[in-house]
Amino acid sequence: MSLHISESVIWNETADGVSLYHTETGDFRTLNATAAQIWVLLADGGDPASVGSRLALLFAGGNAAIAARIRTEVQTFVSSMLTQGLLEEQPS
To answer: What InterPro entries does the record point to (predicted)?
Structure first.
């Protein structure tokens, strides 16, 4: 399975992060810098595992526990976005 941004979502990078608008529900949100970075990496075709690994390389400083926490947080973010209909899964 691969992820893609729902066709019902309009998004834009801003100085404060990423702004998302779900056209079907009317929900509007702004992602903070960390969530925005995850969103942009996913939008560029990254899968959750590779995004988590990339961020772990950037921010864990070689600490395995922190790297694992980053990967878990990326999965949690992706699950939340799927539940809210902002991201969708599709067959590879």
So the answer is: PQQD
